[in-house]
Fold these 2 entries.
Entry 1:
Amino acid sequence: MLKEVARLIKKSKRGVVLTGAGISAESGVPTFRGQDGLWKQYRPEELATLNAFLADPGLVWEWYNWRRELISQVKPNPGHYALCEFRNWFEDFTLITQNVDGLHRQAGLEDILELHGNINLNICVGCRRTDASVTAIDPADIAVCKHCGEKLRPGVVWFGEMLPQDVIRESFKKAESADIFFSVGTSALVHPAAALPVAAKQNGAVLVEINPDRTPLTALADYYFAAKSGELLPQLVAAVKEEAGG
Ligand code: APR
């Protein structure tokens, strides 16, 4: 199967990759719904919604500060680095991520579509301006926006919130024109991200899924690798190099 996908990559001009929390699992970042997932320990409604923040901003900041601290100590894994190679394979390569951990950027991919924002950004809960001047937030004394005086919140998309419209529009445009689309390390449950691989497939893309567990997308995939991304993606890079005689 690896060789077949490697051959298809060589024949493709436009490649798109959608990643989820699974690609960061091997870096030590907990996923949301896996065995050790964050949503197994916490209720998302209590931490990852605007209502939760308005009800208890200190609790929400305590949780995000814990996640920021954890993410500050982890590094990209071979899966993140392997995706940097994908840039060399396609005339037009797009990485779309649901992750907010910044590990794709740390691995060297700059041009990324971040659907759910970035955990290290602080934005105003009122006017949504970004405040880069504030790095650490004290849950007991939450910094406020210089423009409108409202509290600062993490720059991530919470449940029930709209995704950045420009990012989502661009993501669907790229998915719908892809020759090959990879869904990597996502449970394919959360929309609108989960609709991207379906849109790609409906528009003629070859659909490849990499995930140790099956998902609602698996039945639709042309190729399904029941594997960890940190192991499979480097193998795919090697197979493409071999195919190219490189
Ligand atoms: N390699 C590849 N996939 C993996 C690995 C790994 N090493 N380890 C776990 N996985 C898979 C799990 O089997 C699971 O299907 O990664 C997937 C992670 O799924 P979720 O935890 O649901 O994360 P994700 O799909 O990114 O969630 C989407 O939901 O909670 C919101 O905003 C949050 O962006 C997140 C969105």
Entry 2:
Amino acid sequence: MNKILLFCDPGIDDSLAIMYALLHPDLDVVGIVSSYGNVPQEQATNNVAYLLKLAGREDIPLIGGAKGPLSGEITVYYPEIHGPEGLGPIRPPETIVGELLNYNRVFEIIEQYKGELTIVEIGRMTSLAIAFILGEEHMKKVKDYFIMGGAFLVPGNVTPVAEANFYGDPIAANLVLSKATNVTIIPLNVTTEAIVTSEVVDYITQFQFNPFTPLIEPIFEFYADAYVELVPGLNGAPMHDVLTLSAVTNRDLVQYVMRPVTVQILAETRGQSVTDFRPGWEPEPTDVLRRVALELNYQFFVHDFVEVMTKSLRD
Ligand code: RIB
Ligand code: CA
């Protein structure tokens, strides 16, 4: 069983990723850090709290993450993609207000599961960077990191070269990539291929398999409608964050290369993920190599997504 501490900013694909993680029989979510990103941190927190309540998993610690990037800039949100509240047309009941635990709980969880904890980051990396600033000695006890971010030799999704999570706080992304060990990066190269179609959603919502089923179709349709504006002709919507969680348990899902990775911080290249793909490249002795996913086994992804999202919570 993979112990997961999840950093997120729900957001539609984050929400689907949370559902996926809570339904997955091999993923044990031992904490969730909610941060700004797709929506303000308060809204992200209420969305997490809503999903945990639906699942009857209010026992999972919900920890307050960052409300903005390390630079102190004003954050730009994306209601046109994720909806005004972050769940497309769905508004969590007003009675559900996420009660946040102090950030120190992150370090308590790392100590509790030292050597076996996987941190999965599917949002802006500010909160995770803060963990390295506040408690680097604890971070050495994390088993590994799976990070959704970056775009390698493919177009970005917020600028011509930058992916949203790295662009949202490039200082934090660079800081984490300079300090974390055993890092797997799941970039746009593979996540834009992880398309779920309306037909797949029809299939996974044909019966009420679990408490999330009624939410899936409306939030997916909102997200897919937004994506078809962004990518004309796209038949479905990309599950960036689901794919990142799926990679934790499914070793055959994507193919990787090992490379050192940095993130550009300034000007037109802000948020761009950089490595060396020249044919004769060899690592320098000082290079810290990251596993970078470059190719997706699409059939495997869809099959796994359908299987997990149609589980009952007690499967
Ligand atoms: O670029 C994709 C990432 O940005 C995902 O984590 C998604 O939630 C969006 O915020
Ligand atoms: Ca996200």
